[in-house]
UniProtKB/TrEMBL annotation, chains A, B:
GO terms for molecular function: glucuronosyltransferase activity. Belongs to the UDP-glycosyltransferase family. The chain crosses the membrane at residues 470-493. It is an enzyme of class 2 (transferase). It comes from the Eukaryota. It is found in: Membrane. Its EC number is 2.4.1.17. This is UDP-glucuronosyltransferase. It catalyses: glucuronate acceptor + UDP-alpha-D-glucuronate = acceptor beta-D-glucuronoside + UDP + H(+). Residues 1-23 form the signal peptide. GO terms for cellular component: membrane. Keywords: Glycosyltransferase, Membrane, Signal, Transferase, Transmembrane, Transmembrane helix. InterPro entries: UDP-glycosyltransferase (IPR050271), UDP_glucos_trans (IPR002213), UDP_glycos_trans_CS (IPR035595).
Length: 519, 519
């Protein structure tokens, strides 16, 4: 494994046509492949449009990331992307741990390659922009001593906030729990148990980075601490999507930063949409990774769609289902944003990826959710709690339950009303999420970081952070005072009692003497 | 006391000349008198400029708040402002409790006045804007069922964040502690002790509102919970001023919202400033409440100033000190913002009120601090930790220690360099703090609140919020499992041992039989 990891580095420097802008910054981007790159690309394109020079580190077998681009340089490293092998696999979670093993090996090889490291140092980058779903970019930024900006929703330590913001488990549902911010006692117990389980799982993933952390950043360094040292967290959600929870000053919410007003549809698609008449259209897409569902399920979905008066546009890459109705159009790809923004769109059948949900919120289209893996069940449980989504369990669904769910979302007006309310809230921001993200990236360039927004409390040992040592000392002190006081009081009581007894004795003796003399 | 509290209400409605704007909202303002009104006025003026109609509730004996204004209506209520009596007093903290007693009485009288309450209901306000340093505005908003926007730095529960955001005492210094975010063990013990002390003090202040809360908002209502229900917290600081700490999504930072570029000085003042030559000027002001210091202290300060080559402009309202030098100009009032923004200004001698510090940060002028009461020691300890202020203890100072402090700030370039760095950070924001405040006030108007940004976790009982019940149950369960397992294991051990013994016995018996037969 290690053998094929040697690095063939060649720096591609196409002629970059930078528009005149406020830019001129040097940004080093360490992306994560797959759907994560879709997000990162939005930032990279906008940074380019603002006149910054961008260098992207691209694994040679990358699935999504282009080696040749007119708007970024690339540094190619070989054999590092694991996504090619795991795409379409339902065993993603298990495979993730292997991915981290690969990334940590890749980084180790990079750090050993002194020519590469010297050329990176010489390039005088202003910052590293990375997605901390793997540890690579974080380690690279620390190794190069550069400010660090995260484009984040997940870290190895779970949902981004859990790595830096206090997250009381009484009202902050742990990732994967599918709970809301309003939990019963049993649910709160569940949340605490899932927290411990999750922590253990995540520790396993982080473990792959331990040796490289200790080798380069000191014996007590670990990936969590290095991640917590990031300057700015560009968080890919907001509080229209997420439940309200504590946050930190260096978290910048840019949820929906990729959303745009719809462009006109291609003529044939527009004709199909218009043919739906008053009934409107339903669109269905299960995102970039999951193009194909098991055949039995596709048949059930197709059969359900066939019973609807609506037209359906279904992004489907597998075999054509036999039960497909005339009202359903299968497409390999669709202009999802333009379709969601079309006035005839009535509902969105989705797997619940963050991007799709943000676009649905932006355009105010209610959701029928078919959650598969990762954050999808959590995302959809949030939408369900806000009354804008109906969730269908893919494991137990059939044409009837699916049809019922779609019809409920179509005919119960509360779904659409609530989603349009969320849309209004989301759009009503002092500045566009993408502009806000750009501002803070450029802020880090201008000021060489954003240390004033970042607490250093993560450097404290856990018992100090949680004041356990203080509580123990105060408790010991109070106990000591109570013990001493009790002892003193007891001793005094004893003394007093003895004196009383003695006096009694004396009195009795005197009395007896008096009596003696008297009688 | 209660007798003089009857309310003479007359609503003044001057002809409001609203500029054409995006506005048209109806804002009910319940201010706090004194320096708090200076802040609130900035918001009220800007709201007026944006075309909103503002109604201000003004106590008849108000010290700062004008009854007649061209940009707001006023509802006058008699005998409620206590500030007139306590201004200039060093016993402010003690008197504060009395102030809360008065405010709660005033609010009670207001609620009883059905004509006033009906007229307030009829006015269909969009929101209540208030400073929660007293509880009046919060109670009024809940009584009228209106969305609530706080212009806040302090609540009765201490520094604003402590009422809503998790505040780990290991790195969040409790108000009044004068600690930083980097504490030794002893300091952390101190912080925890001050926390408990502070909580007790604040409970006393809140106590005055208990009966009115229970009467109007249910038997378990209290002021803290009602305050926590606010939609937006416009916080009068930011993280250039404050140490980084956890915050909440509905906290909007508007620190320095009153700061403006300097206007030219009046001719005579400009001449005086220019006469300082290369040495520049020092300006001194102890804010709006404290115009006069004890005579001995003024003499020492004057004598110290007299030894400097700089010119000094001193806002001073008492007797002219005998030791005053020719280089010092006493003024009753000064254009503080314009002077701080003047290129010849070298240092700012200040008491450490939030407004003055924000202006010093905005203009990049280092501080010599003479903290007196309230948040002033805390504010200055923050500036000291950031290396932009030298603090002088007013209780022990003399001309020498004061002179030394001023000279250190003048001649050690790090003070100015660091303060100008803070100034650059403060000015580098995606939008101006005042515009941000306006956006969120208008957001609340547009959406009838901002419930999606506000956690409702404050409604949980404390043991549920802190998951104490969950921990107890889990601990009990684990204990039970351990006990049962131990009991079972013990019982089995006992059984096994007995069986072994029995076998031994049998064996021995058999052996003995065998031996018997054998011999």
């Amino acid at each position: 494994m290690m053998k094929c990891m040697h690095l063939l580095v060649f720096v591609l420097t196409p002629l970059l046509l930078c528009p005149p802008g406020i830019g001129g910054g040097q940004v080093l981007v360490f992306p994560v492949d797959g759907s994560h790159w879709i997000n990162m690309k939005v930032l990279v394109e906008e940074l380019h449009a603002r006149g910054h020079n961008i260098t992207v580190i691209v694994p040679s077998d990358s699935w999504y990331i282009n080696k040749n681009s007119s708007y970024y340089n690339s540094i190619q490293i070989e054999g590092a992307s694991f996504w090619t092998q795991i795409k379409m696999s339902f065993e993603l979670i298990v495979k993730c741990s292997e991915m981290h093993y690969h990334v940590s090996n890749m980084i180790h090889e990079m750090f050993q390659d002194s020519r590469l490291m010297q050329s990176l140092q010489a390039s005088e980058y202003d910052l590293v922009l990375t997605d901390p779903a793997t540890g690579g970019g974080v380690l690279l930024a620390h190794r190069l001593g550069l400010p660090l900006v995260l484009n984040v929703r997940w870290t190895l330590q779970g949902e981004g906030h859990f790595a830096i913001a206090p997250s009381p488990l009484s009202y902050v549902p742990f990732p994967g729990s599918e709970l809301t911010d309003n939990m019963s006692f049993i649910e709160r117990v569940q949340n605490v148990l899932i927290y411990f389980l999750g922590k253990a799982q995540l520790a396993i993933a982080s473990y792959h980075y331990t040796s490289i952390c200790q080798q380069y950043f000191g014996s007590d360094a670990d990936l969590l601490t290095l991640t917590q040292g990031a300057d700015i967290w560009l968080m890919r959600n907001d509080f229209v999507f997420e439940f309200p929870r504590p946050t930190m000053p260096n978290v910048v919410y840019m949820g929906g930063f990729q959303c745009k007003p719809p462009k006109p549809l291609p003529t044939d698609l527009e004709e199909f949409v218009q043919s739906s008449g008053e009934h409107g259209v339903i669109i269905m897409s299960l995102g970039t990774i999951f193009g194909e569902l098991p055949h039995e399920i596709t048949e059930e979905i197709a059969a359900a769609f066939a019973q609807l008066p609506q037209k359906v546009i279904w992004r489907h890459r597998g075999k054509r289902p036999a039960s497909l109705g005339n009202n359903t159009l299968l497409v390999k790809w669709m202009p999802q944003n333009d379709l969601l923004g079309h006035p005839k769109t009535r509902a969105f059948v989705a797997h619940g990826g963050t991007n799709g949900i943000q676009e649905a919120i932006y355009h105010g289209v209610p959701i029928v959710g078919l959650p598969l893996v990762f954050d999808q069940p959590d995302n959809l449980s949030r939408m369900k709690a806000k009354g804008v989504a109906k969730i269908v369990d893919i494991a137990t669904m059939d044409r009837n339950t699916f049809l019922q769910a779609v019809q409920e979302v179509l005919h119960d007006p509360s779904y659409r009303i609530k989603m349009q309310h969320l849309s209004r809230l989301h759009r009503d921001q002092p500045m566009k999420p993408l502009d806000r993200a750009m501002f803070w990236i450029e802020f880090v360039m201008r000021h060489k970081g954003a240390a004033h927004l970042r607490t250093e409390s993560y450097k404290m040992p856990w018992y100090a952070y949680h004041s356990v040592d203080v509580i123990v000392v105060l408790f010991a002190f109070v106990s000591l005072v109570v013990l001493c006081t009790t002892a003193i009081v007891k001793y005094m009581c004893y003394k007093i009692r003895r004196r009383i007894k003695k006096k009694h004795k004396e009195n009795r003796w005197r009395k007896s003497q008096i009596y003696k003399n008297y009688y």
